[in-house]
Design a protein that fits this description.
Blueprint: H1 3-9, H2 24-35, E1 46-51, H3 54-63, H4 69-72, E2 75-82, H5 84-92, H6 102-125, E3 129-133, H7 140-147, E4 153-162, H8 176-179, H9 190-207, H10 217-225, H11 233-239
Antiparallel strand pairs: 1-2, 2-4, 3-4
């Protein structure tokens, strides 16, 4: 195809990194590339916290569920949905601010994801590895307190960045025909396609280089949907001014 498509199709999560640092110049270039992502109405409803203090990194290891690469990677970034800056700018321009709308939460969360993914593609294009850390939402209030996040700002996820010290295999994705539907939603073939994908994933988990296990895609989903996942998030978001009205 071309180098960009080849790069996107070669993505792996990296959880072991060398000790080689990332220069400030490169990091700033990556963040600037991230900023070129699309953003709803040019709101740019995000902030990125670069966590350099090693003590804070160690606390984030615990708060994210004990993921040691949070402390060991060259750079750890926390991507935040941020409506504070936009609210204040609109208010200075004479607006009577309405806060707490569900659409504001969606816009800020999507904006944070888009800038992060742009940054990730840029990082991988220069040989860096990455790992998203959604585990920060296990303890979002404590993460917010540690990073001193104000009202109307919440941590969406973290991102490990560094030079890879492993070469894991690319994890298979669902078949294209399962997720690409024409004109209307038609799930009549989903069960058969998922069954075939389960076989693909079972072979992957059995044969991959590290952490082999006997499971498949559907079985991996069971813990996620067999109990209430992070039920604290609604009250936490409300406390930060994202009321979902």
């Amino acid at each position: 195809m071309n180098t960009v498509i080849d790069l996107l199709k070669s993505h792996r999560s990296i959880r072991k990194f060398t000790h080689q640092p990332i220069t400030d110049e490169l990091l700033h270039t990556l963040v600037a590339a991230g900023q070129c992502a699309a953003t709803s109405n040019h709101v740019q409803a995000y902030s990125i916290i670069r966590v350099v203090d090693q003590g804070n990194r160690e606390q984030l290891v615990a708060l994210s569920g004990g993921q040691p690469y949070v402390a060991g990677c060259a750079e750890f970034l926390v991507f935040c949905a941020d409506m504070k800056r936009s609210f204040e700018a609109a208010e200075r321009a004479g607006a009577e601010i309405v806060t707490g709308m569900t659409e504001q939460l969606l816009v800020a969360t999507i904006d944070a994801a888009l800038i992060a993914q742009n940054l990730v593609v840029a990082a991988e294009s220069v040989g860096l590895g990455i790992c998203y850390i959604g585990g920060l939402r296990n303890n979002p209030a404590d993460v917010s307190a540690l990073l001193r996040l104000p009202e109307h700002v919440y941590p969406v996820f973290g991102l490990c960045l560094g030079y890879p010290d492993q070469q894991p295999e690319v994890k298979p994705r669902l078949p294209l025909e399962t997720i690409l539907k024409q004109d209307y939603y038609n799930g009549s073939e989903d069960e058969a396609q998922v069954a075939a994908f389960d076989q693909t994933m079972q072979s992957y988990y059995q044969q991959r280089t590290g952490n082999n296990k006997e499971t498949n895609w559907s079985q991996q989903l069971r813990p996620m949907f067999s109990h209430k996942l992070r039920p604290h998030m609604k009250d936490f978001l409300f406390s930060k001014g994202f009321e979902m009205k």
